Amino acid sequence: MNTLRSLGFAVASALTLAIAMPSFASAQDASISNSDIARYKSLLRLTSAQSRMWPTVAAALRAYSHKKRTVVELIPVVTPFYRALDENQQQVARSLAQHLGLGSYAMLM
Question: Whole-model pTM?
Answer without folding.
Answer: 0.69
